[in-house]
Write a structure and sequence with these properties.
This protein is α+β, with helices and mostly antiparallel strands. The protein is built from six helices and seven strands.
Length: 178
Amino acid sequence: MPVQLAVQQMVTELIDSRVRVICDFSHSIQDMVASGRLSYGIIKLTVDTSEDLQSFGWASNQKVSFDELDKLPIVSAHNGCFVRHIIEYTLNDSGKRYYFSYLASHLQHQVAAIHAGFGIGLLSKDFISRTANLELLGKDEGFPMLPSYQYRLIGDADTHIKQKIEQPLKHFVASIRD
């Protein structure tokens, strides 16, 4: 929550107005911006090339081979989540059978489920490396490659507020790490 509060306080000070922070799926934020219900949004997108990429990794509480499991137990968020979409697309493309063994909207609950052994999850590689008792599973274990991603600022290019908040928000977006 500190990140969302920092954004809310920063933008409130810049525009001297009330700011509403909504944490939701990227596609929902895109819809709200497109319909005019939000002026700006920060979303997560997969990208092919960029100098500021972040990478996903498969996370588990122990090393495991992709091929040794007939059906992968997956820890993820509910349907509509950006990360869940990546999991489904990647595993369907690989032909690997899987099932959702634990679903939670909050990252801390997903991490707790991975630690407890409910299954394998998809997290940022930075997060996995900073978190005790999580193993990064990759090509050495036979797991499929995952796309890179970055956070993007979207919004109305024609508002008078844009001049005040666009650069600080872009700087903030560039600094986000899961």
